[in-house]
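job 3f2a | input accepted
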Amino acid sequence: MADPILIGSEIKSVPGIDNAKQIYAYRDNDTTAVRALQDANNPGSAYQVPVDRKCIIFQCYFGYPSTSAGRSEFRIWENNAVAAAGNVKYFGHVSNYQAAIYPHVYMEFSAGNYIINEPTGSNSVNCALIGVELDA
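job 3f2a | predicted structure (136 res):
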């Protein structure tokens, strides 16, 4: 099976792939608790990779909403529990001197798992991920 072609943050169709779905998962500015990212296509629900599918994340946004001095770190985890740390997929930091960062990444998440975010530090971090969901 061929993978879809990704141009910027848009999925372009490829012959033989008719069920690729764009994923936008996010976490608003809040406390530093570990929890799953929310599914923008299903507000109020944590995004969980469906059975027989995989999710590939290729674009991230991490924003630092505070004007106070400090630094916040963040981790992206994969786990089958909605609010538990798991296998680290990505780690970084953002400070009041950066305001926001937009790293390009390649993170694959397996069927049945959640995308978990854990911000730590003196202030919380907004988080948004863009990717594609397709057959495993």
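job 3f2a | The chain has a mean pLDDT of 77.
job 3f2a | closed
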